């Protein structure tokens, strides 16, 4: 038998690390394109600025948000939903930059979800102290609540403690430190898993400064 070096599997530290059935962390997967992603983020935010949304219960979120792609996630006193238009400008959300789409599709495939075609990208900006309580991503999938597409979540900037639980709010969570360039993918049996982000610690990232940017890619259903 001859050993072809080029056919060898990637080293263990570069392989998706399973954190639950259907859920994996791809360490450093976005690092090669991190600068391009940040350029895309700044361009999107120039057209659709970050804002602190209000929950249906009337609380202002500590994470500031914006969107790009055909659909964008919003929250207000009326509830959570996807909109084709930015309510701040009444204009369509900025298009999803090509490198966003390419990375999300590649990362999903790497984690076992072929042909992921997100039409929504939520941009989350965390400053020290910001947090995201345990929740499920379940506003996607359109009227038929089709959850066959995974979630792809890209971390840039300051580290975060990511909490990943089960299908019930009360299920035990595991904690994962997410660093600049890490990607988390969850779908299949984990698609509706509860997840959240612990309060962000103070810090200074060499490229992003005192913030963390998270890009969350979803297929949010048809825009009708
Ligand atoms: C989210 O659940 O929308 C964000 C997760 C994260 O910031 O890592
Ligand atoms: Fe989420």
Structural class: mainly beta
Number of helices: 2
Q: What is the assembly state of the chains in this entry? A: single chain
> Count the strands?
15
Spatial strand arrangement across the major sheet: 1-2-13-10-15-8-3
Gap between N and C termini, in Å? 57 Å
Radius of gyration: 17 Å
Which regions are unreliable across 5 or more consecutive residues at pLDDT < 50? Answer: none
Which strand-content bin applies to the residues?
25-35%
Net shape: globular
Q: Main sheet, how many strands, which sense, barrel?
A: 7 strands, antiparallel
Order of helices and strands: EEHEEEEEHEEEEEEEE
Arithmetic mean of pLDDT: 95
Distinct ligands, ions and cofactors found in the model: succinic acid, fe (ii) ion
State the helical fraction.
Answer: 10-25%
Write structural notes for this entry.
The protein has helices at residues 34-47, 98-110, and strands at 17-20, 23-26, 64-68, 72-76, 79-83, 85-86, 91-92, 120-126, 132-135, 151-157, 160-164, 174-178, 183-186, 195-197, 212-218. By secondary structure, it is mainly β. It has a 7-stranded antiparallel β-sheet, covered by helices on one side. Strands 9-14-11-12 form a 4-stranded antiparallel β-sheet, with no helix packed on it. Strand 4 and strand 5 form a beta hairpin. It binds succinic acid and fe (ii) ion (FE2). Succinic acid is lined by residues 122, 124, 132, 153, 160, 162, 195, 197, 214, 216.
What attributes characterize this protein structure?
seven-stranded antiparallel β-sheet, mainly beta, binds fe (ii) ion, 2 helices, 15 strands, four-stranded antiparallel β-sheet, 12% helix, 224 residues
